[in-house]
Design brief:
The structure is a single chain. The protein is an alpha+beta fold. It folds into 2 domains: 197 residues, Periplasmic binding protein-like II (D-Maltodextrin-Binding Protein, domain 2, 3-Layer(aba) Sandwich); 202 residues, 3-Layer(aba) Sandwich (D-Maltodextrin-Binding Protein, domain 2), CATH 3.40.190.10. The protein has 19 helices and 12 strands. The strands form 3 sheets. Strands 1, 2, 3, 4, 7, 10, 11 and 12 form an 8-stranded mixed beta sheet that branches. A two-stranded antiparallel ribbon has the order 5-6. The relative contact order is 0.16.
C-alpha cells in the first residue's frame, strides 16, 4: 500500500512538473512576437523613413505581440522586383507598400491574398468602406479587395506666384484649361541675354512615370487608356494622339523643355525658378512647401474636354507565402496605420492625400487645411479622378507606352506613329489575357 502511494505521488509530481514545463513553454511562445517584415519604397521623395519608423514603433508599443520591421527597398520599381524575387524564392515580405497599379501583376504571380479574408467584424467592414472610391479603383478587381490605400496621390499643378506677377498674370488664378496653360506658359518663359531659356513656362516630367503624367493630358481630353479588367488598352485612340500632340507642341513652341524631362529634378527646377509651372505628384507638396522660397499656388490639372487626373501612389499588400499568423498580424498593422488620425498625420507630414473622408474630418487635418488650403486641392480633385493605368503584365505594357511617349517628345516619331506602335506592342503582350 505504501509502495502504491509512493508511485502515485511520484506520478503526480511528474505530471505537475510536466504541466509546469508545458505552461512555461506556452508562456514563452505567447511572449515571442509574430514577425512582420514590411517592404517600403523609401525612394518616393521626402524624408519619410523617420515617419514610417515612428509608426512601427508606436504600433509595437500598443501591440507587443507583433514585431514590425520596415525594410527600405528603394524605388517602387526596385521594391516590386525585390518583393517578387523574394516571393519566388519562398521568403517574401509579409506585407509591402507597392504601386496600386501592381495589383494585376501580383495577382497573376499568385503572390498576394485578398483582404476580404480578414474583414470579419462590423468595424472591419466600416473601415474597408471608408476609403475614397477613387482610390479603390486600383485596389479591387473580381469582387475582391487586393490592396489597401496608403500613400496615395493625384497629379497637381504648382505655379510660382512671383513669376506670375512679373509676367502680368493674376498670381491667384491658375490656368483652367489647355489654352490658358499655353498662353500663361508663353508669357512666363524667360530668356537670358544670349537667347537661352532661363525659365521655362511649363514643365511636365517624362522620365520615371511618363505614362502617369501623360494621363493628366489624355484624361482631360476625355480618353481612357485601359479597361477595368486590365486586358485592353486604347493607346491609338485619336483623343490620346491629340493629347500627345499637345504635349509635343508645348516643346515645339519653346515654352516647355525639349526632349525627355527628368522626374526627380522637376521639383528642384521649380525651387530654382527654372520652371514657372510644373506638374507633379501631390506627394511632393511638403517637399515644395519646405524648399520653395517664394509664394506658390497649387491647382487642379487644366481641363480640355473635362477636368481630371489619374490617381497614383502605393497600396499595402499581404503576401501569400507568409504564415496565417503573420498575415493576420500584418492586417492588424495595416488597419492601425490607416486609421483616420494616423492617415491625417501622414498627409500633413508628406503631402500625400489622406485616404478617407474620416481623416479629413479629424481636428488636426481640418486645422491644417484652414492654414494651408493647398493641402486640400488633391482631395478636391478626387471626384473627377480616374484610375491610374493598370493592366496585366503592367510593367511591360506601360514600358511600351513610355517608349512611345518619349519617341514623340524627342521627335523620332510622330505622336500618331508612336501611339500606333505602342498599341501594337501592348496588344501583343495582352493577347494571353483576353
Amino acid at each position: 500500500m505504501k509502495r502504491k502511494t509512493f508511485l502515485q505521488l511520484t506520478t503526480l509530481k511528474t505530471i505537475a512538473a510536466c504541466a509546469l514545463l508545458t505552461g512555461a513553454a506556452g508562456q514563452l511562445l505567447a511572449q515571442t512576437p509574430v514577425e512582420v517584415q514590411f517592404f517600403y519604397p523609401v525612394a518616393v521623395g521626402g524624408p519619410i523613413a523617420k515617419t514610417i519608423d515612428g509608426f512601427a514603433a508606436d504600433f509595437m508599443k500598443a501591440n507587443p505581440q507583433i514585431k514590425v520591421t520596415p525594410i527600405y527597398a528603394g524605388s517602387y520599381q526596385e521594391s516590386i522586383v525585390k518583393a517578387l524575387t523574394a516571393h519566388k524564392s519562398g521568403t517574401p515580405p509579409v506585407t509591402s507598400v507597392l504601386l496600386s497599379t501592381d495589383m494585376f501583376t501580383l495577382i497573376d504571380e499568385d503572390a498576394v491574398v485578398p483582404f476580404d479574408n480578414f474583414v470579419k467584424t462590423a468595424q472591419d467592414q466600416t473601415w474597408l468602406k471608408g476609403f475614397y472610391p477613387a482610390f479603390m479603383q486600383n485596389s479591387q478587381t473580381g469582387g475582391k479587395t487586393w490592396g489597401i490605400p496608403f500613400q496615395r496621390s493625384t497629379v497637381v499643378m504648382y505655379w510660382n506666384k512671383d513669376l506670375f506677377k512679373a509676367a502680368g498674370l493674376d498670381p491667384n488664378k491658375a490656368p483652367a484649361n489647355w489654352a490658358e496653360l499655353k498662353n500663361a506658359a508663353t508669357k512666363l518663359t524667360q530668356k537670358d541675354a544670349s537667347g537661352k531659356v532661363s525659365t521655362w513656362g511649363v514643365q511636365i516630367p517624362s522620365s520615371g512615370f511618363p505614362y502617369w503624367l501623360f494621363q493628366t493630358l489624355s484624361t482631360t481630353n476625355g480618353a481612357v487608356l485601359a479597361n477595368e479588367a486590365g486586358t485592353t488598352v486604347r493607346f491609338d485612340d485619336p483623343k490620346v494622339v491629340e493629347a500627345l500632340q499637345y504635349w509635343v507642341d508645348l516643346g515645339k513652341s519653346g515654352i516647355h523643355p525639349p526632349g525627355v524631362v527628368e522626374w526627380g529634378t522637376t521639383p528642384k527646377d521649380f525651387f530654382e525658378r527654372k520652371a514657372a509651372i510644373i506638374f507633379t505628384t501631390t506627394g511632393n507638396l511638403t517637399n515644395i512647401k519646405a524648399n520653395a522660397k517664394f509664394d506658390f499656388g497649387v491647382g487642379m490639372i487644366p481641363a480640355n474636354a473635362r477636368r481630371g487626373s489619374p490617381t497614383g501612389g502605393g497600396n499595402f499588400y499581404i503576401f501569400k507565402k507568409s504564415t496565417p499568423a503573420q498575415q493576420q498580424a500584418a492586417f492588424e498593422f495595416i488597419r492601425w496605420v490607416t486609421q483616420p488620425e494616423r492617415a491625417a498625420q501622414w498627409s500633413i507630414d508628406t503631402g500625400y492625400v489622406a485616404v478617407s473622408q474620416a481623416a479629413y474630418d479629424t481636428p488636426v487635418l481640418k486645422q491644417y487645411g484652414l492654414s494651408f488650403p493647398a493641402a486640400l486641392v488633391a482631395r478636391d480633385q478626387l471626384p473627377v479622378a480616374v484610375a491610374e493605368l493598370s493592366t496585366h503584365d503592367n510593367q511591360r505594357v506601360t514600358k511600351a507606352l513610355n517608349n512611345g511617349l518619349q519617341a514623340a517628345l524627342t521627335g523620332s516619331k510622330t505622336p500618331a506613329q508612336a501611339m500606333k506602335d505602342a498599341q501594337a506592342e501592348a496588344d501583343r503582350i495582352l493577347r494571353a489575357y483576353k
